[in-house]
Specification:
Bound molecules: 3-isopropylmalic acid
Number of strands of chain A: 14
Oligomer: homodimer
Order of helices and strands of chain A: EHEHHEHEHEEEHEHEHEHEEHHEEH
Largest interface: A-B, 62 and 62 residues
Largest sheet of chain A: 10 strands, mixed
Strand content of chain A: 15-25%
Shape of chain A: globular
CATH class of the largest domain in chain A: Alpha Beta
Strand order of the largest sheet of chain A: 2-1-3-12-11-4-5-10-8-9
Number of domains of chain A: 2
Structural class of chain A: alpha/beta
Number of helices of chain A: 12
CATH architecture of the largest domain in chain A: 3-Layer(aba) Sandwich
C-alpha cells in the first residue's frame, strides 16, 4: 500500500522556517517509528503569486484535493498589501478552504503550564485553560454573494453577504457535538440572534441538531459580544465553542491571545470523509507570517509542529503518536527552552527555530 | 428660554433602578447648580412591549426625535426570548439608533485605578487604561437589506447584508479623528479588508478622510481579528479605535471587559447637529438589563450616572460639570464604596444601588 500523502504549502514569511522543523519531525517518524508519508511541496500565497501571478494555481489546488492531508505554514506580507483583492495571498488560503470544503475549523486554545505567566491575564484565570473553538470555515460573510465595491449615485458602496444554509450550520454543529463527546460534554454556540436573522437560524438549527442527535451534550447559546466578554472574564467556563466564520475569526484570535503564546497554537480544518475514509484536511498554525522576523531563526516552530500532531490525530488515526509529540513539546518547555517570543522576564534557555525543533526531536 | 429636554427611557431589568439614581443627580443639578432640565419618562424594550405590543411606539419615537437628549437604561430579558424577532426588546433600541441616525457610538474603555485589581488581566496591563472606541451604529450588517430567513429548495437560509456607503464611513471616521484631536492624536481603524470588500472600502475611505482633513492625526489600520488579540495583549497601545457596527459590538465589549468593571462603563451615541446646534444624542450604560439581579438594589448605577455625565459633556457643553461627576465617582471608589459587582477579595464598604447614588451626590 502506498504511504499516505502530505502536501506541504509552506507559504510566506516564517512559513518555510517553521515548516522545516516539521519536515525534520516527519523524517524522524519514518526513521524511528516506521511511519512514512509521501511528502511533496508546493507554493501558496505571496510565494505562489511571485512565481505565477496567482496566490494558488489550479495545479496546486488539484494536488491539495488529491492529498491525504495538507500542511500550511502562513500567508501574507506587507509586500503584497498593494495587490488587488482578487490576488492577495489570503485568497489562496480561502480558495483551499472553500474548494476542499473544509467546513470545520478546530482551534484549540490551550494554556501551557510552563507558559501561564506569559498571558496578559492573571495566572489563575488561564492556568489549565483548554477550550476548543469550532469555527465554520466555508460560508458566511467570507463567501456570500453579492459582494464587491459598487457605485451608487455618486458614491461607492461596499457590500458583503452573510449567508448560511441549514445544512451548513447542521454539519459544523455536529463536528462540535462530536468533539464535546470526547471532551467535557459541553458546547456553547455563539451568534447575534438578537440582531441578525442568520443568527436566529444558526441558533435554531444548532438547537435542533442537539435535541435530535446529541441530547447528552450540554448546549448553551450566547450572543457573540457577550462571548468576547466571557472569554476575557472567565475563559475556563467553556469546553467547546461553535460559531460562524467571521465571529470565529475574531473570537478564536481573542481566545488564542488569552493563552499568551500565539506561537504555540495549532489548527485543523476538516471537511467530509474522502473515499479512503479520511476527512479532507488542512493543518496550519494560528499565527501569521510574521514578516518582521522572517529568515532570522527567531520564529517559534511549535504551533506548526502541533498542527502536524493534529494531522496525526485527525487524519491518520495516530492519536498516541500525536500525544507523544505534544508531550515532547511540554517537556522542552518545562526544561526552560524558549524561542524569542516565549522569552519572558523569568528568563529561560534561548533557542533558535531549529534549536527548538531539534530539542523536540530529542525529547521524543 | 425653555430648559433643555431630557427623555428618559429606563427600559427593562435593572434599567429603572439605575436610572432612579440619575434622576436624583438631575434634581441635584437643578437645586444646587441651577442647571435644570425638562425631564420626561417613557417606555422602551420589553416594558413597552408589555404595554403596547411593540418595543417602541411611534409616539415614543417622535418624543425621542424632539428631545435634546435621550437617556436609556437597558433593554431585554429572558421573558422576551420567545418573542418574534420583529418585536424583541432590542428592536426598540435599534429603531432609536437608526431613526435618530446616531451614527457615532462612543464607548470609552477606562480602567479606574481603585478597581484595576478587578480585571482578569494583570494590573500593569490595564492600570491607567483609557481608550475610546468609536463604533458605527446605523449601518452595516445590523441594517443592510436583503435580510431574513428564506426557503431555498428544501432548506432554510439565513441572510444578512453588510453594506457601507462612502459617506457613512467618512462621517464616523470624522467623529473618530475629532475625538483623537482632543485626546492623544492616534486613531486605529479596524476591519477585515483582507477578506471583505466592505472592509476594503472602509480602509480606503478612512485613509482618504485622514489624508485630506486630518493629516495631523496618526492613523493606523488593523484587521479586526488582530484587533481582538491586541486588545487582550496590550490594550494601552490604543487611543481611539474606529470600526463598523458588528466589529464594534464585539470589540467594544471585549475592551469593556478588560477594565474588569462593566458596571462602570457609559456610552454616547451621537448623530448630526439639530437646529439648536446640539447633536442628536442617546446615552446609555454599556451593561445590559441584568434580569438576574433586577429589583434587588444590587445594581451598580455608576455606568448610568457616567452616561449622564457624557450627556452633560457632549449634548450640553457642560464639560466642567461632567468632570465633577466623574471625579465624584472616583472619590467614592477611592473611599472604598462598592456595589455587589465591585466587591472583590480585598473587600470594601458594601452599598446598595441607592447607597452608591447618594454617596456620589454627597461627594459632589
Ligand atoms: C488570513 C485570513 C484570510 C484568515 C481569516 O480571516 O480567516 C486568518 O485570519 C485566519 O483566521 O485564518
Ligand atoms: C442589545 C443589542 C441589540 C446591542 C447591539 O448588538 O448593538 C448591544 O449588544 C449593544 O452593544 O449595544
Amino acid at each position: 500500500m502506498a504511504n499516505p500523502s502530505l502536501l506541504i504549502l509552506a507559504g510566506d514569511g516564517i512559513g518555510p522556517e517553521v515548516m522545516a522543523e516539521v519536515k525534520k519531525l516527519i523524517r524522524w517518524f519514518e526513521a524511528k517509528r516506521g511511519i512514512a508519508f509521501d511528502v511533496s511541496d508546493d507554493l501558496v500565497g505571496g510565494a505562489a503569486y511571485d512565481k505565477s501571478g496567482t496566490p494558488l494555481t489550479d495545479e496546486t489546488m488539484a494536488r491539495a484535493q488529491a492529498a491525504d492531508a495538507v500542511l500550511l505554514g502562513a500567508v501574507g506580507g506587507p509586500k503584497y498589501d498593494v495587490l488587488d483583492f482578487s490576488v492577495k495571498p489570503e485568497r489562496g488560503l480561502l480558495r483551499l478552504r472553500k474548494e476542499m470544503d473544509l467546513y470545520a475549523n478546530l482551534r484549540p486554545a490551550q494554556c501551557f503550564d510552563a507558559l501561564a505567566d506569559f498571558s496578559s491575564l492573571k495566572r489563575d484565570i488561564v492556568a489549565g485553560l483548554d477550550i476548543m473553538i469550532v469555527r465554520e470555515l466555508t460560508s458566511g460573510v467570507y463567501f456570500g454573494e453579492p459582494r464587491g465595491i459598487f457605485t451608487e449615485g455618486n458614491e461607492r458602496v461596499g457590500i458583503n453577504t452573510q449567508r448560511y444554509t441549514e445544512s451548513e450550520i447542521a454539519r459544523v454543529a455536529r463536528s462540535a457535538f462530536e468533539l464535546a463527546r470526547k471532551r467535557n460534554g459541553k458546547v456553547c454556540s455563539m451568534e447575534k440572534a438578537n440582531v441578525m436573522e442568520s443568527g436566529v437560524l444558526w441558533r435554531q438549527v444548532v438547537q435542533e441538531v442537539h435535541d435530535k442527535e446529541y441530547p447528552d451534550i450540554q448546549l448553551s447559546h450566547m450572543y457573540a459580544d457577550n462571548g468576547a466578554m466571557q472569554l476575557v472574564r472567565a475563559p475556563k467556563q467553556f469546553d467547546v465553542i461553535v460559531t460562524d466564520n467571521l465571529f470565529g475569526d475574531v473570537l478564536s484570535d481573542c481566545a488564542a491571545m488569552l493563552t499568551g503564546s500565539l506561537g504555540m497554537l495549532p489548527s485543523a480544518s476538516l471537511g467530509a470523509p474522502m473515499a479512503n475514509g479520511r476527512p479532507k484536511a488542512l493543518y496550519e498554525p494560528v499565527h501569521g507570517s510574521a514578516p518582521d522576523i522572517a529568515g532570522q531563526g527567531k520564529a517559534n516552530p511549535i504551533a506548526c509542529i502541533l498542527s502536524f500532531a493534529m494531522a496525526l490525530r485527525y487524519s491518520f488515526d495516530l492519536g498516541v503518536e500525536a500525544a507523544r509529540v505534544e508531550q515532547a513539546v511540554e517537556k522542552v518547555l518545562a526544561d526552560g527552552l524558549r524561542t524569542a517570543d516565549l522569552m519572558g522576564p523569568e528568563g529561560g534557555v534561548p533557542v533558535s527555530t531549529s534549536g527548538m525543533g531539534d530539542a523536540i526531536l530529542a525529547a521524543l
